[in-house]
What does this fold into?
Amino acid sequence: MHDKILGIQVQEFSQKPSNIFIRLLNKHHHPTQGGNKKCTGVPTMLAPSSKVVAFLLALCLSSRSALASYHAEPVPTPEPTPAAIDPADGSKDCTKDICESQLSKDLLLKYQINVPSGTTLDVCEKCTISMEAIYDGEAWISIGFSTDGLMLGSEAVIGIPGGVPQKYVMESKSIDGVVPMPDSAQTLTDAIAEVIDGQTIMKFTKIMKETDEIEITTQANTFLWAYGSSATLGYHSARSPFDLNLSSSLVEEVKVPNYSAWLAHGIMAFLAWGVLLPFGVNSSLFRGLLPKEPLWFNLHRAFNTTAFALFVAAFSVAVSYTKKEGAGNFKTIHGKTGLLLFTSTAMQVTGGYFRPHAPLPDSGEEKTLFRKVWETKHRCFGLGALALGFWQMSEGIELFSIKFSVSASNEGKVCIAYWVWIGFMTATLLLGVWYSKIRKETPGKGNSPPAVEDTEFSVVMPKDAMLDVEVDADGQG
It folds into this structure.
């Protein structure tokens, strides 16, 4: 095929027919300088036919090009690769893939369910779970298994760097209550705890359903995580419960209900036992600094009446919400101690109404033996209940922190503030006892109104108790 057709490059036939036609006319039919209309190198009589041929040729080539474009197979447009779509609930098959859960900014958990041949995920006979906990630091790590999100009564795998992870039972909050299971129950495989590049890594494979142990299901489970501040097993620096669905890899922080109710319980208990009680007692002990009118008694009665009302409210909240949560009342040490203090208080209040009266001032009568015994009993009970009440409030702070996953640092701050306040109140009470003794031993310092035969006031003890203590006219409790 010629490179040119009628003087036009073949490649130019890809242009529009109208353009080609105009080019042909310009090439084969243009006037000379003299104005005579002649076609250079072509007889004049052939000029019209050349124009026609050029037109038909351009039209033919243009049509052929169009037909070729029409009949040519279209280049298939590649379908867009669909983006990876996670299920709406974020589920993932943890029997085929290693699932991950970021438990905290410092702790990552990886796990996979191992389903033996011959069983299904629903039945999961002899299934095991492989776990790997990675902590950014060097410390002991624990993954626990629970039914209620609380540490007490739960089971855990604890890994100490350089040792072999073992299964433990959480019998109490003290380190002595973290008890290893017997050797026959130590069924972990591939267990290791080591430090690599500044990270503590604990790996183990555990049977999901074991006799007399908390079962790990393929559905929703309540787990616990914790880690310490060093490689020596001790108090955790951080911990929290969490719900984990092993079949879908969904992780949710355990939201323990009734937060406001238990917070109100603690606040009312502290106001009653930690604030109003010391103020009420000190209003009696420092009566010598107050006007000679019975102001001390009015203050004392107001403080302790309010404290008693708060005590009843706090105790009622505890009983009501413990029952509501299905935990059963008075099954823990804290609950039993509260019941003991409440029962003793009720007896003490009742005894106050039937107390033996003290002799009137300047009557010359001596206290009866019954009165002396009653006073001694009240003093001893008051001191013992006060100490027990202070401990009870401290225990309550710790239980609240565990129940609602308060960070160890925040719990520590609250405990420090609590004991500083209790220490201050205790110091004022001791100072008041010393002042009262000095006042009674100094002639002319007694200022109790002679019209008062004896006065009764209620000492409300921390948490769940109230003591009825009697003060006679000379200031004796």
Summary: The chain has three domains: 1-28, 99-253, 259-472. The longest helix spans residues 369-403.
